[in-house]
Amino acid sequence: MGWAAHYIAALKSGQSVQFRPRGASMVGRIASGQLVTVEPLGAVPPVKDEIVLCKVNGNEYLHLVKAVNGKRFQIGNNRGGINGWTTLVQVFGRCVKVEP
Q: 7, 55 in Cβ contact below 8 A?
């Protein structure tokens, strides 16, 4: 069970979630400890440069969609790192708000 398991469960049930992610991988978009609001993905697939809560190779991330190739999404951080490719079924929500 990863750090985002209960947020993912809430998103899957249609609820929005708020939390304060820690770390420096999204600096410039999200600073460590900022409050983020993530809403369920819904019927609209994510687009390039959107921040999503997802799983890539079993790991949970609140990272950017770096590229879209058909029904696959490349996920990475805001510092140039790439986590890998995932599918829509592994993208659970989109970040809609970042607060101090």
A: no
Contact assessment for residue 32 and residue 21, using Cβ atoms and an 8 Å cutoff: yes
**pTM tops 0.70, yes or no:** yes
Long-range contacts of 61-65 (CB under 8 A, 24+ apart): 62/4, 62/21, 62/26, 62/30, 62/36, 62/38, 62/95, 63/25, 63/26, 64/26, 64/29
Dihedral of the alpha carbons of 60, 43, 96, 77, in degrees to the nearest 10: 40
Kindly report, residue by residue over 50-94, the tens digit of the pLDDT.
999 999 999 999 999 999 999 999 999 999 999 999 999 999 999
Yes or no: say if 98 and 30 are a contact pair by the CB < 8 Å rule.
Answer: yes
